[in-house]
Amino acid sequence: MPDSLQSFLFSYYGLDWAAAVFMFLSMYRLGHHKKDGFVYAALASICWIAFNLIAHSAAGVIANLIIAAMAFRSLTQWNAKDASQPQEHTLPITPEP
What domain range includes position 21? Predict the structure, then answer.
């Protein structure tokens, strides 16, 4: 039984597990408005691409190439938006004499 369970859980070298973890991290970080969530989404897509290559799924590979491209585009747009917004500068509060 342990061999069959192990092969069931890790028959794709753990790529599916890594992809799932990266996707959960991506959703969590984007939910907290952190742009590194897009990096986790791209990592998840890379893992899913490798998984789908092993599983011989052309649709999975193509879909995840598109998702990775969308994550990269979203990250670059986020960076462009950050660069175009004026930065708030605050002056340090000094105690009065």
Answer: 11-80
Residues 40, 22 contacting (CB under 8 angstroms): yes
pTM of the model: 0.75
38 falls within a domain = yes
CA–CA separation, 9 vs 66, rounded Å? 27
Residue 67 domain-assigned (yes or no) = yes
Residue 89: strand, helix, or coil: coil
Q: How far apart are CA 11 and CA 1, in angstroms?
A: 15
* Count of domains observed in the chain: 1
Is 2 within the bounds of a domain?
Answer: no
pLDDT in tens, the chain (97 residues): 467 888 888 889 999 999 999 999 999 999 999 999 999 999 999 999 999 999 999 999 999 999 999 988 998 998 888 877 776 666 667 777 6
